[in-house]
Amino acid sequence: MVYQDITKRIQGLLCAAASYYGMPFAPPRILIDLTGADAGQAIYEENLLRFNMDFCHYNHRHFIRNIVAHEIAHLIAPRVYGQHIAAHGSEWRVVMEQVFRVKPDSHHSYDLRQSGRYRFIYSCRCRGKETPLSATRYNREQRGVIYFCGECGGRLHFLYEETRYLRVSETKFPGNPRKFKYRRSSTADNWTEPLLHQRTLILPE
After folding, report:
1. Gap between the Cα atoms of 50 and 112, Å rounded
2. Which domains does the chain have, with CATH numbers?
3. How much is the pTM?
4. pLDDT in tens, 20-64
5. Roughly what angle, to the nearest 10 degrees, separates helices 68-81 and 2-21?
C-alpha cells in the first residue's frame, strides 16, 4: 500500500510538472530502503528516489504529500533549470510552490524515535526534554564516549529504551533490492562528542 501511494503521488506530480513546463519527465526508480534520520533522498544522476518506510508509516498523509513532493522536486528542478542550481534554492522552491502547491520546507521534524535506530532516550539539564540516540551512539556511550546537549551543554544521561515505536516490518517492494551498498565515512571515535537535540534535520540533497 505504501509503495502504491508513493507511485500514485509521483505520477500526479510528474503530470503537473509536464503540464507546467511543457516537457515530459521520465518516471524515477523508487526504493523504500532508507533508515535512520533521513526521510527521503533524491539522486538526480540515477533518476532515483529513496524513502524511509518507518517515517512514512507513522506520518503517512504528511509524508505522501510533502516528502514525496520534496524529493521529486529535486529531480524536476535540475532538469528544467540546470544541474548547477542550489539544492533548496529559488528554482527548487518554484517547483514546490508554483507547480506542486506544497510548502517548500527543506527539513522534516518527524520524531526520531519513529526510526528503529533512535530508541535510546537520554536526558540533560533542559527541563522536560528527552534526546533520542541511535543504537550506534548508545553503544559508544556504553564504551565511554560522552555526549553533550547542544542547548544547555549538559552531559546526556541514559533514561530508558523506547518501546512504543516498533520498527515497521521489512517488506519487499517492487524494484527494491535485498541489499543496498552504502558508503560510510571512516572517522575515529572521539571521547567527547557534542550532540544537538531537536536539531533541524536536513533532507539529503
Report:
1. 18
2. 2-108 (3.30.2010.10), 112-199 (no CATH)
3. 0.66
4. 999 999 999 999 998 777 789 999 999 999 998 888 888 899 999
5. 30
Closest CA to 68 of 27, 22, 111, 19: 27
- The mean-pLDDT minimum among 4-18, 71-85, 139-153, 158-172 falls in 158-172
Do the beta carbons of residue 137 and residue 156 sit within 8 Å? Answer: no
Residue at grid coordinates 504529500:
65
Q: How far lies 145's CA from each of 5, 19, 135, 148, in Å?
A: 42, 54, 13, 10
Determine the residue type at 134. S
* Lowest-confidence segment of 3-7, 86-90, 154-158, 198-202 by average pLDDT: 198-202
Amino acid present at 73: A
DSSP state letters, 88-142: TSHHHHHIIIIIS-----SEE---GGGSTT--EEEE-SSTT-EEEE-HHHHHHHH
Say if residues 99 and 16 touch (Cβ distance below 8 Å). yes
The SS3 of residue 78 is helix
The label of the residue with cell 553503544 reads 139
The 10s digit of each residue's pLDDT in 101-114 is 999 987 877 777 77
CA 10-11-13 angle, to 5 degrees, is 65
Q: Show which residues are catalytic.
A: 71
- In the block, cell 523508487 appears at 30
